[in-house]
Specification:
43% of the residues lie in helices and 15% in strands. The protein is an alpha+beta fold and 318 residues long. The chain has two domains: 94 residues, Phosphorylase Kinase, domain 1; 198 residues, Alpha-Beta Complex (Aminoglycoside 3'-phosphotransferase, Chain: A, domain 2), CATH 3.90.1200. The strands form three sheets. It has a five-stranded antiparallel beta sheet, with helices on one face. A hairpin with a 2-residue loop joins β2 and β3. The longest helix has 27 residues. It is globular, with a radius of gyration of 20 Å. The two termini are 36 Å apart. The structure holds adenosine-5'-diphosphate (ADP) and the ligand N[C@@H](CCOP(=O)(O)O)C(=O)O. Adenosine-5'-diphosphate (ADP) binds next to loops.
């Protein structure tokens, strides 16, 4: 990410005394990511990640942190949130909500092979199943309601042909969201941003999913579509790489088979997933927030993906 809120070692020292991690020894801002302020911190107890939440408030955050705890307790590989002496997972730092989680081993696999995609498919299906009995409800805050608000905000910045694309897709997604297929999709807590940069691998061994701060209750198939649109494509064109798509979907369905309605709605969800990230990238690009280190994501990438998903038939779900 960017660092929107600066934290020095002097700031951190007194704040850290409430956590059972010993003294803070070092802090380093993390340049990747775009939503929150993230830091690697070294303490006497080891390496952790400190996140200061820039857009989420104290009421919303227990959903994410307790979901991570819930998943970890059921064997899904995710960072463990650290509670302070009062048992709180979210504590104010510089007036904003902040949390400490364990640091995952490994690094992101930015050029994934079919075996990486299969590992992600298996863990994603396990995550969906494991989260079924999670008791806190929170909608996907980047779902259809947010698209309705955001589309008119970004529209004036777009070329005529992109305005047309956005209007047409909004209309299509509104109609699909009212369909019987969509109503029948299984749903529950989903990650909703499971891009390559949010998964760690040690070689070919998946060590964890992280960055749950876009998670929310939505359809499982939307989560699968978000994941396929990032992991299983030719990065230059956005076209689906059929070998990687097949590896991910076969692995997913071996744990959680797809329903008939999901088979019929697959292409619509690939489009929805492309639209969601085109919109957020457009918003961040044209209406940026201040940041010390900010690497904007290219909206054109998801415009290309959306155009392809609206014109080329995707392979059927297994
Ligand atoms: N639990 C973690 N373990 C290891 N690295 C992490 C962890 N959380 C975040 N990171 C690192 O921080 C970077 C930015 O985190 P991310 O959650 O993607 O930021 P943002 O929420 O701002 O998009 C990641 O790419 C990763 O390198
Ligand atoms: N994955 C999204 C942006 C969210 O950033 P992240 O670093 O939290 O994954 C995109 O690529 O647009």
């Amino acid at each position: 990410m960017a660092v929107f809120t600066s934290v020095s070692l002097d700031d951190l020292g007194p704040w850290m005394t409430q956590f059972p991690l010993g003294k803070a020894l070092a802090i380093k801002g993390i340049a990747s990511g775009i939503e929150n302020s993230n830091f690697f911190i070294t303490t006497e107890a080891g390496e952790y990640v400190l996140t200061i939440f820039e857009n989420l408030d104290f009421e919303q955050l227990p959903f994410y942190l307790k979901l991570m705890r819930h998943l970890a307790d059921r064997g899904v590989l995710v960072p463990a949130p650290i509670a302070n002496a009062q048992g709180e997972l979210v504590v104010a730092l510089h007036g904003k909500p902040a949390a400490i989680v364990s640091k995952l081993d490994g690094s992101s696999q930015m050029a994934p092979q079919p075996q990486h995609c299969a590992g992600v498919g298996t863990m994603l299906a396990r995550m969906h199943i494991a989260a079924r009995d999670f008791s806190i409800q929170q909608p996907n805050l980047r779902g259809l309601d947010w698209w309705r608000v955001t589309a008119p905000v970004v529209l004036p910045f777009l070329s005529d042909s992109n305005q047309q694309l956005l209007r047409d897709e909004m209309q299509y997604q509104e109609a699909f969201a009212s369909s019987a297929e969509y109503a029948a999709f299984p749903r529950g807590p989903v990650h909703a941003d499971l891009f390559r940069n949010n998964v760690m691998f040690d070689g070919e061994r998946l060590t964890g999913f992280f960055d749950f701060y876009f998670a929310g209750c939505d359809t499982w198939l939307f989560d699968v579509a978000v994941t396929v649109n990032d992991w299983c494509i030719d990065l230059d064109s956005g076209a689906l790489d059929l070998t990687r798509v097949d590896a991910m979907l076969q692995a997913y369905q071996a744990v959680r088979p797809f329903s008939d309605e999901e088979h019929r709605g697959w292409q619509a969800m690939l489009r929805a997933a492309a639209l969601r990230f085109w919109l957020s990238r457009l918003y961040d690009y044209h209406l940026p927030r201040d940041a010390e280190m900010l690497t904007p994501h290219d909206p054109g990438h998801f415009e290309r993906i959306l155009r392809l998903r609206t014109t080329i038939a995707a392979p059927e779900l297994p």
